[in-house]
## 1
Amino acid sequence: MPLQNRVTPLGDLIADPARGTVYGNRGCLHDAGGRIRRRFATRRWISCRLEFKDWRRAALLQPGRFTELFFLDEATAFAAGHRPCALCRREDYRRFLELIGEPGADAVDARLHEERLGPYREAALDELPDCSFVLHRGHPWLVAGAELLKWSPGGYADRVLRPRNERATVVTPPSLVDVLLAGWAGAAVPLLHPSASA
């Protein structure tokens, strides 16, 4: 049975057998039986490489340890409010700090935490950068050029033309939209799942 540790663009934790391309955590969210009991335990929400050096991971959701999370891709992790890890993605992390304009992890995490807890904002669809997420027809969709791609745990399923001259509810936190607008191109993890280009 799949564990409830797959993250949606809305930041929700779901159980699904699909494996993503990005790993991360936001503290210990599960109880001794592996059941998710809270949405977060810390302000430090990070996204990591699936593999780093020769580290071996133990069984998932061990009592008292952080909850291992999985994302379809980095665009999904950004939408959920996660930033690059300073350890396994050091170069990405340094570039991220430059683009977001904060001196270090504590300032970034405080800023992102406030944005994650705040209400979603509205914006013109025409002005949003690729790889940001919006709510469209009640579901999260990825902005991708002239299209919107419907998110699913296993990949991007449907495509529609990006509506012109319309406003949308933006899921990706404002600071991370700004990072995407500034030309984010992390190297350690896939920004987009392969299904985005199918």
## 2
Amino acid sequence: MALVKFSNIGLRYSTGDEVLHDVSFELEPGSFHFLTGPSGAGKTSLMKLLYIGQKPTRGVITMMGRDLATVSPKALPELRRQIGVVFQDFRLLAHLSAFDNVALPLRVSGVSESAIKKNVTELLEWVGLGGKMNARPPTLSGGEQQRIAMARAIINRPKLLLADEPTGNIDENIGIKLLTLFEELNRHGTTVVIATHNEGLVRRFPHDQMHLEHGILDIRRNPSAKAA
């Protein structure tokens, strides 16, 4: 069963023209996709639909076996906890340490402090920031902040990980390291969707593309991509 299924999705804001037109696709568990397309093509709108931050104007979205149109407001937070999001602007809390930023989703979920200490410490070491746990975001580089944002997004072991231009504010070498971390997470079963303008990274990493142009989606299969 597909983890996510979009069926004939259309989206418009207010009374304007549609920004997405009849978008249909499936994301299989453990798959990896790049979301590509020029500025204004609708990538941000599609990402909002994927992290349940926006409702479609028409069509059906099924996520983790549930039709989003029938999910009650009380059930939405639990569903959203299975989705990790790395935003382009990081959205880290400047007054909190790296450790506390990553720990935040666990504390909201009521996880014990002993479990938080173990899990957050292990994850920050995994992303190469074991020595920066007490540092606050303003004192860190863009690449380090991006890895904190990634760690926060995956600390709850989400089934679906979304990243909006995760390499946009960092140099190419850091971008390659970050994509390697995404691939490692994907190998552990997480479905990954990365919105990007970086054609070099798309060419370097062999994954399928979800390409948007004028709100119309085209799935471009990469013959070297692993089967989901």
## 3
Amino acid sequence: MKKRVVAILMAAAMAVTVCAGCGGSDKGKGGEKASEDGKKKVTVWAWDVEYNIPVMEEAARRYEEKHPDVDIEVMEYAYDDITQKINTNLSSGITDGLPEIILSEDANVQKYLQSYPGAFRDMKDEVDFSNFAEYKVKVLTLEDGIYGVPFDIGTEGLFYRQDYMEQAGYTEEDLTDITWDEFIEIGKKVKEVT
């Protein structure tokens, strides 16, 4: 039986495009799983019905439109269940039943890669990683391999009342390239004045 490979993915449209047919056992042509209608079967484990699941379903729909020989099934699990299933199966060497694609939080990626060498597919020759934030690619990198695709970058936003800032004598430039300590001091002064 061919060794099954699981791709840790954090990318939506790219994830499915890059990984359709990533892993596989002996269930279909070329070691890929086959669905009942003969299509290549790709299983995705994801969590979060508000974001991850809908995004992966949309990515699957778009991929299947361009690749009618592929059937992608997005399966919802609780995040802790995905982590437990991956660890249990890979620790015991049982790869049957694992998906081709999983979504994972950054904190677990290196744990998986270091604990289960050879279990994950190197994606560096399949994806142009220059299109992604370097720090997100670094999380997926071990030695010379890149074992996933960034899903999101967890961007945060800072919103402030411009009128309060101006009233306290600050401009947008005063908030550019500053430390948290500097930001806190500005906040204290704005509060005092306004």
## 4
Amino acid sequence: MRPKRIHREDLRRRLRNLHIIDFVKDMIFINLGMLVYSLGWAVFMLPNRIVTGGGAGAAAILQYATGFPMQYTLLIVNSVLLLIAWWQLGSKFTLKTLYAVLSLTFYLDFCQRVVGMDPELARGILGANQEIGMSCILGAILNGIGIGMVFMSGGCTGGWDIIASIVNKYKNVSIGRVLLYLDLVVIGGSYFLFHSWQTVVYGYITLVVYTFAVDVMINSSKQDIQFTIYTKEYDDIIEVIREKTGHTATLMYGEGGYTHEAMKVVITIVHKNEQVDILRLVRDADPDAFVTFHRVEGAFGKGFNVIKA
């Protein structure tokens, strides 16, 4: 006999309480991510005048040229961009990004002050014969890990990410491609400040290592995810997926190979950054559900990419 289904209102109430806990966890994770990211800049990259892409790279170049702290440049620019993001991308994305921007401002200032107290901190970590190449790689790895932690929590650090998200909303251009074009311009432009191709090359190396580290953290953001969910609470799970993500799902009829018990299987495809949300929704609606997911190399149609073949 099928167990009694959870009443919809009880389910929503339970979900709200659990989402508060998840939101707090996300804020803590964003905080840690911004600390790691700031350490990469303060300890390894800024002391060696290393450039990279993104809004942070542009702000760092301005600091090298004028001495104006990059964290305040980022705060000023992001204050404007966040107003646009609130209008174009919604409040949830904007609030998490605002929190990340404020955390980044604090930690960049704090970490630079700590490094200023001990200018030989990087030398103490890398040894007396430290090379700029090693600082470049270590700084990029810390940057990538920090940003990956923020992305996994549903936020971003503002800057180019906001611009790319808005462009992606209205044009069939991937966020990754927009960011790549902007990064290439910023790093290439650093030549006019330093008049050194070596600096430009190190900047591109930093960008490659940073991008790889982010991808490792979030399991390749370029792909969508297909979930296959075996559950008796399929109606509740489909409803919460639709309410919280805007995606729908397909029901398939199945039968247990051992018990021969009839069941329905929920299949849904979501964006990569919604993977954690879906797992949490399924966990909250049916802790006994059996879930598998895999990467989808391409998803086209409503809510995903436009077919232009």
